[in-house]
Amino acid sequence: MFWQRLRRFFSQDIAMDLGTANTLLYTRRQGIVINEPSVVALDIEKKTVLAVGANAKRYMGRTPRNIATIRPLKEGVIADFDVTRSMIEYFVRKIIRGVRLVRPSFVICVPMGITQVEKKAVIDSATLAGASEVRLVEEPMAAGIGADLPVNEPIGNMVLDIGGGTSEVAVISLGGIACAQSLRVAGDAMNMAVQRYIREVFRIEVGENTAENVKKIIGCVTPQEKSLAIEVSGKDLVQGAPRVVMITEGHMREALSDTARLISEMVLRALESTPPELSADIYRNGLLMAGGGSMIKGLDQYIARETHLQVYLDNDPLTTVLRGTAKTMLAPDVYRTVFVN
Hints:
Elements: H1 2-10, E1 14-18, E2 22-27, E3 31-37, E4 40-43, E5 48-52, H2 54-57, E6 67-70, E7 73-74, E8 77-78, H3 81-95, E9 105-110, H4 116-128, E10 133-138, H5 139-146, E11 157-162, E12 167-173, E13 176-183, H6 187-202, E14 204-205, H7 208-218, E15 229-236, E16 242-248, H8 249-272, H9 276-285, E17 287-290, H10 299-307, E18 311-313, H11 320-330
Parallel strand pairs: 1-9, 9-10, 11-17, 17-18
Antiparallel strand pairs: 1-2, 2-3, 4-5, 4-6, 7-8, 11-12, 12-13, 14-15, 15-16
Helix pairs in contact: 3-4, 5-11, 6-7, 6-8, 8-10
């Protein structure tokens, strides 16, 4: 016990939300210290890292031939091991400066249902980046803990986490997941849907960053009281010259309708497989939504209409999963049943 306390005093333990779109880090002493895009810019010829995070994202779509911008995580899992390790190392060095007396331990949230190979990739990448110990927590469980749901009690709690690469819904009770569904359709799929819609309807091509900005500003799936519009510039597919078009919320509803339907159908499938007692709890307690994708205007209303549940957003959906991961790091004995490795 003495050595554990001594280690905690000198160690800078880290909770990490290693997301497809953004990576967030939390330390015991400083709280949330990193919230940056999961992007790395590489010099292809020299094989060196040029930029990571927000700086690297600015390069996207604007690089010469010798520079590539890479998103090393796809659909919630590691797609490029070496680049992921470099990204984690960069973020760890950014928050832990100078000589490390003790290597930090990591708690990292991961999507549900990832394979043992994918789990090993996460653990190995963190270990090579300097972790002494790595524990994993599933994202919906972390979201429930972050939202202060009574996950350790014999009560059914339903959580829908819409991230960058995956959407996951889980029914949580007694510190475990009773039933769940996962769908590799989330924020990235919404960006692609916006790009595809603008290309097919307006015949102009826009970049990923532009599509994401349009989604964040006017993205919606139900009619809004105050209709907004935004000018979007891109490349005319017919003439090849730059062109500007006006995109409205009505266009966004059409672009995002299929994504919203798929997510809603996933929730319904989870409800179908939920035991009766837990279903009764969910009807009383409602459905919690978390993750950046849950912030699309009207998505909570749409899912409430389709499922006949009370649906509510967490106060800060972007950090819900990280806050829950941090709580498991700070009180591992209380949440010992939620670790999946």
